[in-house]
Design goal:
Three copies of one chain form a homotrimer. Chain A has a five-stranded antiparallel sheet with strand order 1-8-3-5-6, with helices on one face. Chain A has a three-stranded antiparallel sheet with strand order 2-7-4, sandwiched between helices. Chain A has 142 residues and is α+β, with helices and mostly antiparallel strands. Chain A is built from three helices and eight strands. The interface between A and B is medium-sized, with 32 and 37 residues.
Chain lengths: 142, 142, 142
């Protein structure tokens, strides 16, 4: 019998950058007792992203950070919306270029991630924030 | 008992830019009588996007528009596919850089959007279009 | 009665570029006997993407390729992570700028794609790879 749970994951970010949340999301799937199903994540913010990326060499995340910093420079004179500082509007653009939604199937009780995939919260603001991710788990225990 | 509905939302766009559709999507969730569940949107076009972004200061959307106009300039000599004009291929690229799919959990009968999040149709063509969004609502009334 | 299936689609890519998988995904939906529902795809890799784009004029995909090659140049001196060659880190960035997740509603037994939409695996590496896509189909046969 298919059933569902909804939970909220709180993540504290210390600065701009990546924070892996794979283990916390897997724990919610396991707690739901789901063997086969679908796990959907929604980040409730507009200046941070959810990203599935390589969890092996940390240089991949460092290079992603450097590429996006060059593509969407802090303090760009193009931007009008600067109420919260030089990283305010770049954070919105970086979010638009990536995503706040992920859906990962579940099989044998595990998120169907690839060997080198991790789920990351990507904080785009320089100052610390507490971010909320709503996690919907659908499935059955067989 | 989990159940589902599928409906189509038609949105008329007057020009390139953002059109908020949060209220219409919430109405479909409410009509479906779903208290807890998952709402998935799929835009059936390749030259417009779905985007969750800040619904407070309109300058955020103006700056997003300006950034993308600079990143993917209309009339770029790089492009071969110009059958429908200077904004034809840029519209496809802008769609590829964003997304046509969104999935938002539902709790207490409401889309689990953050305080500052709105759901937008982002029209990338300059001329008016009628856009179709298929909305799948899954859930139960408890 | 809602039910679900999970299957894995293997796709061999010969080089960087697009490979349409719409027919294979539709076949999985049909095999599942689902008339109304939701189909979610997850690509288990970090150097290739899933993209819904125009399936008519192939110049659209050629132009997408050219735009991304200019935006994220192979061999960019910015990148530290070059273990697998000049296209290694650009492949990760291109994946971050697009997505590895798609969710498409199903109605009347068909994926609710627009007339001009096709589902593509976008290989970002130059060498051939075998890519795995996990396909979750949820729905009922009415």
């Amino acid at each position: 019998m298919l059933r569902q749970t909804v939970a909220t994951l709180k993540v504290s970010t210390g600065r701009r950058g990546f924070q892996e949340i794979t283990r916390q999301v897997q724990a919610l799937v396991s707690d739901a007792g789901v063997q086969t199903g679908l796990c959907t994540l929604h980040l409730q913010h507009t200046s941070a992203s959810l990203l599935i990326q390589e969890n092996a060499d940390p240089d991949v995340r460092r290079d992603l950070e450097r590429f996006f910093a060059r593509l969407v420079p802090d303090g760009d004179a193009l931007f009008i919306h600067t109420a919260e500082g030089e990283d305010d509007m770049p954070a919105h653009v970086r979010t638009a270029l990536t995503t706040v939604n992920l859906s990962v199937p579940v099989a044998d009780g595990r998120l169907c991630l690839g060997t080198w995939q991790g789920i990351y919260l990507w904080e785009h603001r320089h100052r610390p924030h507490t971010r909320s991710i709503v996690v919907h788990v659908l499935g059955e225990n067989a």
